[in-house]
Amino acid sequence: MTIKDELQKLLDILPQDLREILENHPQRDSLVEVVLDLGRRPEARFPDKAEYLREAPITQAQIDDCVSRVGSFGGDNRAGIELTLHRISAIRNRSGKIIGLTCRVGRAIFGTIGMIRDLVETGKSILMLGRPGVGKTTALREIARVLADELNKRVVIIDTSNEIAGDGDVPHPAIGRARRMQVAHPNEQHQVMIEAVENHMPEVIVIDEIGTELEAVAARTIAERGVQLVGTAHGNQIENLIKNPTLSDLVGGIQAVTLGDDEARRRGSQKTVLERKALPTFDIAVEMHERKRWVVHESVADTVDTLLRGRQPSPQTRTVDENGKLSITRQLTAINGRGGNVTTLDENFASQRQQGSNWRSSGRMAPLQAVPTELNGSNAPKSEFDRLLSQEASFDTSDLEFDENSRVPGPNGEDLPLHIYPYGVSRHQLEQVIKVLNLPVILTKDIDSADSILALRSHVKNHAKLRQLAKSRHLPLHMIKSSTIPQITRGLRRMLNIDDPEFSDENELQLFLHNGTDDEMDALEEARLAVEQIVIPKGQPVELLPRSAQVRKMQHELVEHYRLKSNSFGEEPNRRLRIYPA
C-alpha cells in the first residue's frame, strides 16, 4: 500500500508549540486527529491510545487563530484545507461561536481495496458499513479511483462534506479521473444525487454516509436506472439497517406477511412473519470490522432473508496479513441441521472470481462420470449392496452372480436374488434402478414365484384383493408413495435391508441422467450443484432457471433424492423450481 497524508499542511494550522511537539512525535505517521477544546488540554489521538500534548489549556485566541487558517465552515460544521483530505470539524456554543475543533488527518491510501477488488469489478452496487474511523471514506476514495482510472468508467462522487475529494474547487488527485459534485447543504444531498444521474450520465455514483430516508429513496431510484452505486451508511452490520426504519429500504425494506397454514407449518414458524419487501438497493454489503478484517455478504437479499427467518448467515470474512496475503474464511452455520466448520481459502481470490467461481456464473458445470456398463470388472465402482457384501468375510463378491434359478444367502440371511412382484410401479424405472445400482433383484409377473410385493400406497388402499393375496401367501408387502426414482430406490433398499447412505451415492445420481437429452442433463446438473453447494451447506433456498414441465419433474425427483422439498412457481414459459433447505 502507498500512503499519502500531507500531514504538514494540517500541522501548520495548529498553535506553534503543538506543531513542534507533533512534528517530533515518534508516532507522527499514525496520528488520527487532534482535539482542541476551550479551557482543556490539547489532545492527540492515535489508533491505540490518546495523550495530552501539554498541561496549559487551549485559549479562545488559539481556536480563533486555527479557524482563520482553514476554509469556511459549511452547514455540517465542517471545513477543510484546500487540496488536502484533512477535515476540521467545529463545536459551537449557543450563540454559534466556535469553542472546539476536531482536526482529523485525511490520508489517501492506494491499494486498500485489494480485499474486495473482485467485487468492485463485477459492476454490482456495494454498501460499506463500519464504525467511525475504520476507513470507510478512504475505501470509497480508492474505489472511485480504481473504477475511473483502471476500469475506465464514468464516475461521479457526491461529496457532501468534501471528505472524499478534499476541500476547494479542485478535487484531490487521489480520486483520479473521477468527477466530484459538491453539496451546498447536507439536506440537499438527495437532490444532488438525482441531479448527477440526470445531467452527467455516470456509470458509477459514489456516496458517503447515506443517513436519511430521502437519500435512501434517491439511492433506490439511481440503482433502478442501472447505475452502479458505491456508498456508506450509518451502522456496523446489516442487522442495524434491518432494525432502522429510515434506512431499511437499502436492504429491501421489511414488511409483515401472513402465511397460509401449509407454509407456516413447512417453515415451522408463526403465521405472521417479517419478510423482505423488495430487492435491495445494494447487491453486496461489506462490514468493515477492522482495517484489515472485512466481512462480505455476497448477496444482501439472501442475508436479509436468512436473518428474518431467525438463522445466521454464512458470509465471507476477508483478512490481510502483514505480507499482504489475502485469506477468505466462511462459517457454514447450517449443514443438514448441524453446525458447520470454518472453510479457509488462501488463494488469489480475485483471479478465480474473474474466471467464474460459482456454478451459475462459470458456465462450466462438470458432468458426473458415466457408470461403466460392466460392473463386475476389478476397477468398476461397487454399489452400496456390493460394499455391504464385501464386509462379510464368508462371501467372495467377485464370483457372485445372480440368475432366476440360482439362490445364494445374503448378509442378512435372505435368499438372493430377491424376486419382486411390482404392482402399480413403473417397470421401466424399476429395471433402470436395478441395473444402474446393480441390485440383486429380479422382477416377476407371477405372484406365486415372488418373494415380496412392491406397490404404490394409493393402489394398495383401493385394492383389498391384493392385500388378501399377500396375506394368504405370506408375502411381505412394501409400499411407496409414488413411482419416482427416489421412492423406488428407497423401497428396494428397505426390501434388501440396505441402509440409506449418509451421502449421495454417485451411482444413484446417474439414474437421473440416464439417457437424458442435453437440456435435461444441464437442468439436472444445475439442480444437483445448487443443492450440494448452496442449499445444504448454506441453508438457503435457491431458484433455478426456467424449464419445461417434463424437465421440472425430473428436477423435483432429484431434489427428493436429497430429502429436500421443492416447488414450481411462476407462469409459463418462465415457470421454474425453488429448492428449500431441510
From TrEMBL:
Annotated ranges, domain R3H: 518-582
SUPFAM superfamilies named in the record: P-loop containing nucleoside triphosphate hydrolases, R3H domain
InterPro entries xrefs: AAA+_ATPase, P-loop_NTPase, PTPase_dom, R3H_AAA, R3H_dom, R3H_dom_sf, Spore_III_AA_AAA+_ATPase
Record keywords: ATP-binding, Nucleotide-binding
Pfam family, one: Spore_III_AA
Signal peptide residues on this chain, from the entry's feature table: none
Superkingdom of the source species: Bacteria
Single annotated GO MF: ATP binding
PANTHER family attached to this UniProt entry: KINASE-RELATED, P-LOOP CONTAINING NUCLEOSIDE TRIPHOSPHATE HYDROLASES SUPERFAMILY PROTEIN
Protein name, entry field: R3H domain-containing protein
Lineage of producing organism: Bacteria, Bacillati, Cyanobacteriota, Cyanophyceae, Nostocales
